[in-house]
Amino acid sequence: YMVVDLEIDPSGQVSAVWQRNFDDRGWASLRKLTHAEFSDKWNEYAEAGYFLRDQEAYILDGTRYYAGVWIEKQASFGWASYRNVTSAEFSERFTTYSEAGYMPIDVEAYQMGDEIRYSAIWVENVHNVDWNLRRNMSPTQYGDYFQQYSGHYRVWDLESYERNDAQNFAAIWVENTNGREWAAVRDMDSRGFTNRWYAYRDRGYRLLDYDSYETDNGTRYLGVWRQVNDRPDWVLKDDVNQLMQDHIDEFDPTSMTVAIAKDGEILYLRGFGHGDVADNKWANSRTVYRTASVAKALAGVLALRVEEDGDIDLNLSTSVYVPDMPAHHTHTVAHTLANRSGIGHYAHHTTPDEVQ
Predict the structure, then answer these.
(1) The dihedral formed by the CA atoms of 291, 297, 301 and 306, expressed in degrees to the nearest 10
(2) How far apart are CA 24 and CA 42, in angstroms?
(3) Does 356 score more than 80 pLDDT?
(4) Which among 205, 153, 148, 141 has a CA at the least distance from the CA of 179?
(5) The pTM is what?
(6) Confidence class of residue 99 from pLDDT cuts 50, 70 and 90?
(7) Whole-number Å distance between alpha carbons of 66 and 37
(8) Mean pLDDT, all residues of the chain
(9) CA within 13 Å, CB half, 257
(10) Tell me, what DSSP letter sits at residue 332?
C-alpha cells in the first residue's frame, strides 16, 4: 500500500488514507517539516521524478509544520504546487494554471496570523477532464453546489476550515467520466464516520479523501468514497435491497447482515440495522452474530466435503467414529446431519432413564 492522503490534528495525531500500490511505484510520506525542510524535499523529489500528491500545514506546540505525500510519476506530465498564499494570490494562480491547461488535485486552507492562507497542487490536465474548484463556501453554499454538480461531477477533494468565525468548505469536483458511484459525507461524529467507513467498504467503495475539524459541537469528520469493484453494479442489487427491507418491515429485527456470492466472488454485501444499539454501531459484514441453527447448514456442507475426500462414510453408525457413545445411540452420521438423530443439547434434553 501507499499513502495518498495525510491529516495531522492540533494534538499531533496523524491520520492517513492508504491505497494498494498496484504498479509498485515509489512514494514518500513526510511530516513535521519546517518551511525550509519542505522546500528541500520538494526539490529533491521533483528532481527524482515524483509529484506532490497531498500537502498539509499545521501548528504543533506553537510551531508551524508541513507534511506532504510524494508519488513517483509513471507518465510524463507537468505539475506545480504552492502554499501559504493569500486569497488574492490564490485567485491569480488559479487563473494562471487553469489557463495553462492544469487542473487542481488538492486544496487546503488554514489560519496563519490574522488571515486565511491557501495551498494547492495542480497537474497537467492531459486527459482534458472537466472540473470545478470552489472555496470559502458556507455549509449551505457547499450543499447547493453539491446538488448542482452531482449529476455530472464527483467530489475529488474536500476541505473544512474556519474563516471569520464560521465553518467554511473548499472542494474540487471532477468529471465522473466512467460513471462509477461515489459518496461525500461531512459533519460526522466519530461513530458516524466509523459506521459509514464499514458500510461503504461493504458496498464496494474505498476512502479517497478524509479530514477532521473542530466545530461548536466537537470534532467532526468528512470523507469522500469511490466505487472500486463491481458490487454496486450488480443487476439484482436493488431487488435484494427491497427483499431485505420487506423482511425488516415484517419482522423488525435489530440487525441483519447479508452476503451473496457466486463462483467465489462476493456480489452483494450489506448490513442492516444496528450491531450495537446502545453504542449506535451499524451492522456490517464484520458484525459478529451467534450462528444458532445456521451451524447445521455449515456442518452439513463441511461433512459432505469430508466425505468427498474419503475421510468419512455418512451411512455408518456414529458410534464407529465415537466409540464411547452409549449403546442406545444407533443413529448414523447422516442422521445427525439431517437433524434426525434424536440427540438434544438443550437443558430439557436429559439422559433417558429407560431405553426401549
Answers:
(1) 70
(2) 21
(3) no
(4) 153
(5) 0.85
(6) very high
(7) 9
(8) 94
(9) 17
(10) B
Binning pLDDT at 50, 70 and 90, where does residue 353 land? low
Which burial class, exposed, middle or buried, applies to 270 when counting CB atoms under 10 A from its CB (0-12, 13-18, 19+)? buried
Query: From CA 103, how far away is CA 133, in angstroms rounded?
Result: 9
Angle at 16 between CA 12 and CA 21, to 5 degrees: 150
Locus of grid cell 435489530 = 254
Distances (CA, A) of 283 to 51, 255, 256, 258, 342: 40, 6, 7, 10, 36
In whole angstroms, give the CA distance from residue 197 to residue 66: 27
Q: For 151-166, what is the mean pLDDT?
A: 95
Which residues does 336 contact at the CB level (< 8 Å), separation at least 6?
Answer: 318, 343
| Sheet with 153-163, side-by-side order of all strands | 131-137, 166-175, 153-163
Neighbouring CB atoms inside 10 A of 186's CB total 21
For residue 293, what is its C-alpha cell? 441453527
96: cell is 494562471
What is the per-residue pLDDT for 343?
80
Cβ(307)–Cβ(318) below 8 Å? no
Query: What sign for the dihedral angle of Cα 55, 108, 162, 205?
Result: negative
